[in-house]
């Protein structure tokens, strides 16, 4: 096979012929159905995310793939990370370079990936989960899930009645593009990050700008939008989603914490699916598995790869040395702790564009992860 070449260019340097080739690759590769692979996402994120670019891969002078990305210090990341829930090389499936070959061609000191779609033996599998609607649409899905998980869904029906009795009739609207409502949701998420000790991904500014910019996109079936749940006159929950074709990706949910007993976020997701199904959406993506309710909702999954690709040498050596140190501090749980810190660090590094902000975030993340592991170790039987 001919060697893989790469040219790094600004996203705005791609011409109409490039974008047409990009779209043709998506049409031929079902694995790249997510809205995050659409040209529109790359174009919007390329305007907003600092140090954005695209790697154009070629063999024998012919384009075989595009990889939109950003740089933070010595690290290369998928474009719009940590907001990008799926990433990889946009390519024809039979011509896609594997991650190993692509990383060598890119030559970055470190390549951080959380949800790689494409051929690779590097890293580890992670699962994302989806609701796949069949021919019967939303009603058939709900009947099946209620029959399988009756207790869970009966509880949500009771929660709906309870909230209506307390606050008034429930009303859901989707496909909203109200900037003030988005700001309300971002404020809710920032408060949640403070309460849970997680890094505030919106403090850097450009991440909120990205959501606002995508909210203005509504062409060729692609865009970002909000769905909202009111009880009486009270706004109780909002969810930001990204969608394209038949794919609907739930992205940022938020609800009034004081109403958590009524599960307004879950009720909103259910009603959003019901309404969106009437407009042709068939796959509702909930991202990474983990939250308990997803196992009751989702009837499909995808495997992606999480990996950090390091140049041979000092970086890899230091990584292993760090595990040894963390093992000592965490009573043999170094690998577990490294994975936790790595994920937190990947988000911090992607958000923050200055060394000082990245260092501050890294220290906070390492301290939080170490405290968690020590707490777990102290609870474990001797």
Keywords:
alpha+beta; 382 residues; 12 helices; twelve-stranded mixed β-sheet; globular
In words, what does this structure look like?
Strand 9 (234-244) and strand 10 form a beta hairpin. The chain has 382 residues and is of the alpha+beta class. A 12-stranded mixed beta sheet has the order 1-2-3-4-5-12-6-11-10-9-8-7, sandwiched between helices. It contains 12 helices and 12 strands. It is globular, with a radius of gyration of 22 Å.
What is shown here, in short?
The protein has 382 residues and is of the alpha+beta class.
State the helical fraction. Answer: 40-55%
Strand order across the largest sheet: 1-2-3-4-5-12-6-11-10-9-8-7
Derived structural class: alpha+beta
By DSSP, the count of extended strands is 12
Unreliable stretches: 314-327
The dominant shape is: globular
| N-to-C span | 56 Å
Number of helices: 12
Q: How many strands, which pairing sense, and closed or not: the largest β-sheet?
A: 12 strands, mixed
Radius of gyration: 22 Å
Report strand %: 25-35%
Order of helices and strands: EHHEEEHEEHHEHHEEEHEHEHHH
What is the typical, i.e. mean, pLDDT? Answer: 89
Would you spell out the secondary-structure blueprint of this structure?
Blueprint: E1 5-9, H1 16-28, H2 39-48, E2 52-59, E3 62-72, E4 75-78, H3 99-106, E5 110-116, E6 124-132, H4 137-148, H5 150-167, E7 170-176, H6 179-196, H7 206-215, E8 223-231, E9 234-244, E10 247-255, H8 264-277, E11 283-288, H9 294-297, E12 300-310, H10 314-329, H11 334-351, H12 355-379
Parallel strand pairs: 4-5, 10-11
Antiparallel strand pairs: 1-2, 2-3, 3-4, 5-12, 6-11, 6-12, 7-8, 8-9, 9-10
